[in-house]
Amino acid sequence: MNQSRDIVSKLSERGYRLTPQRMMILSAIKNSNDHTSAEEIYTQVAAKYPHINISTVYRTLELLKKLGLVTETNLGEGRVRYHPADKGHHHHLVCQECGTIIDLDESVLSSLKSALLQEYKFSADLRHLAIFGRCVKCSK
Amino acid sequence: MNQSRDIVSKLSERGYRLTPQRMMILSAIKNSNDHTSAEEIYTQVAAKYPHINISTVYRTLELLKKLGLVTETNLGEGRVRYHPADKGHHHHLVCQECGTIIDLDESVLSSLKSALLQEYKFSADLRHLAIFGRCVKCSK
DNA sequence: AAACTAGTTGCAAAGAGTTGCACAAACCAT
DNA sequence: ATGGTTTGTGCAACTCTTTGCAACTAGTTT
Ligand SMILES: [Mn+2]
Ligand SMILES: [Mn+2]
Ligand SMILES: [Zn+2]
Ligand SMILES: [Zn+2]
User: Fold this and answer.
1) The CATH number, out of the four listed (1.10.10.60, 3.40.50.11740, 3.40.50.300, 3.30.1490.190), of the domain defined by the range A91-133
2) Tens of pLDDT along A54-99?
3) Does strand D come within 7 Å of the CB of B78?
């Protein structure tokens, strides 16, 4: 796993410290197959290190987002979900009626991204978006 | 104002009741010039009717959203903002570095909307979106 | 006008996420 | 190794929003 090494160096390069808590949180995120929540990460880490606090999980996720190592998305469940950035970018269409989720390739938003960059010089962060609306069935 | 009448009928048609609380909350939203928050609506209504509860405000906003009478947006302040749907749709580019907000016309997302409809038969709700990223200055 | 019924409200408690602060620990320099 | 500097952590309190429940009331029927 030279991924871990990348992360370690990315942290120390920028003056962040490599703490046991951060390493455990990172491996919890990598071990999760799919989108994880802060609570799930907390539970997994707490199994081995009960002293950990949930606010440390939130603060670490904040940091990993800033470093571009995890992406976050709100699928409308009342809680945010995360996954490793290196597992490929994609988006989700979420039906507000029946809850169906359609997965979308990153490319669907690439023309929007470049339009915003050209017209507004705005560099939009369009990784891992959730777009709400109605699926075919629920559109009546 | 036959707008009010529209709302009254929109409520009763679907079996919802027209309560004093709902009327006060509605007029509080209409009286606000710009994006309002639940707390601001609550404060305004409570000035005349101190018995009102903030959860009623949240529930009413939920209902008005469902009826398409207000739109909601999260500008990243840790609280959601609302405004009347009939005040025109638009979007916002929010710089996560400096907080600058650029207003966007509705049309910027219309080609995305039709692409999602064609390719996925998904009717996306793209009213009043906030797109995060970095403005020119903060893009270095 | 009185009763009925289903939607609505207030209240209290809970959930998700954030923040200030004092103490702890990682990293760097000696 | 030792000490100092600065970042990070645990904890508790707090903010925003949601939810279960019992009491209430708008709109309808008799
Ligand atoms: Mn995803
Ligand atoms: Mn707006
Ligand atoms: Zn659906
Ligand atoms: Zn900026």
Assistant:
1) 3.30.1490.190
2) 999 999 999 999 999 999 999 999 999 998 988 878 999 999 988 9
3) yes
